[in-house]
Amino acid sequence: MSNKSAKLTIGDKEIELPIYTPTAGPDVLDITKLYAQGDVFTYDPGFTSTAACDSTITFIDGDKGELLHRGYPIDQLAEKSHFLEVCYLLLYGELPSATELEDFETRVTNHTMVHEQMHNFFRGFRRDAHPMATLVGVVGAMSAFYHDSTDINDEWQREVAAIRLIAKLPTIAAMAFKYSIGQPFVYPRNDLDYASNFLHMCFSVPAENYEVNPILARAMDRIFTLHADHEQNASTSTVRLASSSGANPFACIAAGIACLWGPAHGGANQACLEMLKEIGTVDRIPEFIARAKDKNDSYRLMGFGHRVYKNFDPRATVMKQSADEVLELLGVEDNPLLQVAMELEKQALADPYFAEKKLFPNVDFYSGIILEAMGFPTSMFTPIFALARTVGWISQWKEQISDPKLKIGRPRQLYKGETARDYVDIEKR
Ligand code: SDX
């Protein structure tokens, strides 16, 4: 418990609120008893000053540009680890031994296929449906195919649901891509690692052999790692709120995918690349920067800014390195989009507006350039983000579900509507 507290005076009442000290980050003021003792709500739209839960999974320091997963810095994990090992770390709290890792990877590999009847489920969508629409629908439908892992009170079922989601999201995302381009679904292969399997399911066709380029597979794996988890962001908070009602894990993850789709969140990677294409050439950058600065224009530079990072997004730094490697490998280092992106970053960071508002490239700024160079259409950028973030969502879901203090989330409001009034018959209106 806490030996620190804050005193709040409301009218003639003085309320003492406990203060908790975390292992890292700012102190937390416990207001759980505020309404009962003070008959007032707090007011914090967007939750800019609100800790909605306690967690041991991911820590972010926005001023230092620090991102830790179970204490390990993201740049070290991106450099030395790989996505399935990071999945293990997020799920179980420690880096695995060689035996534990092999067992985990085998379990994931053995769950990569989807129920054959799910193929029919895709047939109900128009071919030109956005892959995120398909992903939300099919992942939500998983609860109709995997009944034996929907009981959240059964630890074994929770574990199986987590493995199934991590294992099957690449297969479902690849199926959504293949369906949208009219190509046949490609089954997962157990002889390929996670990232290579995804690339194979996306780009191989029955008509010819497809060899996965190991450098592209490494870049793909690194993109997954950089998107794995990110504290209590909008989509993770959506998953937590959905799971607080006792909804099954597949429904909760489908809710997270729906939230991630928005251009202010995970949809920014698609929006960012579309912005770079709209800018087109370096000489048009000042025009777009002026629009982003114009108070009367709601236009924003996609891929810039972050609710928490106020100096730099450590993921963007690593992503930029990957972009250089991939474009050099593909012999497109003079990619016009990358030229525009680098010049846009240079001009924006030199502009007082962006410096004052602490707007820097975020994780979405460079990822789209890599994904486009790999051959993905922009519509697949957010499904790839969702595929990678599934482990973060399900790790946070597991942490919340096993918390004995879990209560259904139920925020209140600052009501500004009409006070009680009598119904008026239509003849008198
Ligand atoms: C992700 O939360 C997470 O962790 C998310 C994420 C994750 O891993 O889960 O990191 C992934 O979502 C990254 C963010 C991707 N989104 C974008 O790139 C979209 C463009 N960025 C913005 O929409 C915005 O920066 C947000 C939504 C990311 C953050 O917005 P905030 O913190 O709510 O800040 P704000 O909207 O209050 O803006 C503060 C000021 C405003 O100006 P004033 O009203 O104070 O004059 O900065 C301006 C904004 O107009 N501003 C921008 C801007 N972002 C903010 N101006 C121009 N371009 C931008 N991109």
What would you say this structure looks like, in words?
The structure is a single chain. The strands form 2 sheets. The chain has a 3-stranded antiparallel sheet. A 3-stranded antiparallel sheet has the order 4-5-6. The longest helix has 26 residues, at 155-180. Strand 5 and strand 6 (72-73) form a beta hairpin. It has 18 helices and 6 strands. The chain is mainly alpha-helical and 429 residues long. Helix content is 50%, strand content 6%. The termini are far apart. Residues 230, 233, 264-266, 268, 292, 300-308, 357, 359, 362-364 line the site of s-citryldethia Coenzyme A (SDX).
Unreliable residue stretches: none
Distance between the terminal alpha carbons, to the nearest Å? 59 Å
Percent of residues in β-strands: 5-15%
Structural class from helices and strands? Answer: mainly alpha
Q: Label the overall shape.
A: globular
The mean pLDDT is: 95
Topology (SSEs and partners):
Elements: E1 4-10, E2 13-20, E3 28-29, H1 34-38, E4 58-61, E5 66-69, E6 72-73, H2 74-80, H3 83-92, H4 98-109, H5 118-123, H6 131-145, H7 155-180, H8 194-203, H9 214-226, H10 234-243, H11 249-260, H12 268-279, H13 285-293, H14 314-329, H15 336-349, H16 352-356, H17 363-374, H18 381-401
Antiparallel strand pairs: 1-2, 2-3, 4-5, 5-6
Helix pairs in contact: 3-9, 3-18, 6-7, 6-11, 7-8, 7-18, 8-9, 9-14, 9-17, 9-18, 10-11, 10-18, 11-18, 12-17, 14-17
The structure holds s-citryldethia Coenzyme A (SDX).
S-citryldethia Coenzyme A is lined by residues 230, 233, 264-266, 268, 292, 300-308, 357, 359, 362-364.
